[in-house]
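TEACHING EXERCISE
Course module: macromolecular assemblies
Task: Read the component lines below, then compare them to the predicted structure of the full complex.
Student: A.B.
Group: 4
Components provided:
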Amino acid sequence: MKFSTKAIHVGQEPESVTGAVTVPLFQTSTYAQIEIGKHTGFEYARTQNPTRFAWEENLAALEEGIAAFAFGSGTAAVDTVMRLLNAGDHVIMAEDMYGGTYRLATKVLERFGLTFSFVDMRDPANVAKAVTDRTAMIYTETPTNPMMTLTDLVEVAKVARQHGVLMVVDNTFASPYFQRPLTLGADIVVHSATKYLGGHSDLVSGIVATNRDDIAERLKFLQNAVGAVPGPFECWLLLRSSKTLAVRMDRHQSNAMQIAAYCASHPRVQVTHYPGLPSHPQHALAQRQMSGFGGMISIELGSLAAATAFTKALKVFTLAESLGGVESLVCHPVSMTHGSIPKEQRDRLGVTEGLVRLSVGIEDVEDLLADLEQAFQHI
Ligand code: P1T
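Instructor-supplied answer key:
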């Protein structure tokens, strides 16, 4: 089965009692048991919920994994993946990534005895160099938030394999429609399902997929034992969103391609970061490991004053955190999503006060281009 057919059908057989073609919302916390020691297989909703199971089965199929586990947020998903490790373990993490993941690592997980090295993942040699005898996991995001740099997944997976360590990829920006890390050597894929998977800016959720039985068994245990599960309604909304993921992603990308090309030639824009542009330093890698380039673009406007004037003037793009919804958003990473990353690190990465991130929605591209043009005139 191909991608859209899986998105619409896997986990979503007509319901057995009524034939409902949509998976019912099992809004329940518990299930009646037949007698002591005898039940339907459903005991308590933190452990089992049919709506959640349907969504997990669906996403596992889209990522070409064997199982998936849903969580209350992308951050809860990352946190549970980290609980696969033990105190004293070392993690090699991308230095360019969502600020909240950096904060979780440095402000929470380090207190529990994990150690982290933050490396520039653009060069797989940096990953190999950072391996120690305590290294247990390599964790990356590709494309990264917000600099849109890539990790060569095949090459980094070789390093992971050679040292027998887990390889985890945050696939939030690409979505499984454009990139499937498990097929390129990763062991675990993480998503903030709040973004493209949800796609309508109306929920917060996370999900983890794997293609290894031993990891699936351990994640299933942790999902129940730690308990950071989503509610059934989020899972129901995610199933509904999954059916349109392919058409939404195609439109996000075709709008983003046009906007990136426009920004790249605009006199007010100093740099345009978008892996679909031939000028992107890793464009060839993007063409190799992704089947499309997504809807996220970052642009450097040169100063906080320029970023402020530009974002204030936008009318169709809304100034807000988050991304991946049908409506276009604009974000100022330094003051919003990446405030937790130390200034020296941000400066090294290029996350400057003049950097603005666009989450290109699926509106008519002419309206988006006109909005950007009038806002550039205010700089
Ligand atoms: O917000 P939450 O669902 O907990 O997901 C965290 C997360 C994880 N990974 C990536 C790549 C992310 O972008 C995020 C959340 N990011 C934003 C809220 C943002 O605006 O960048």
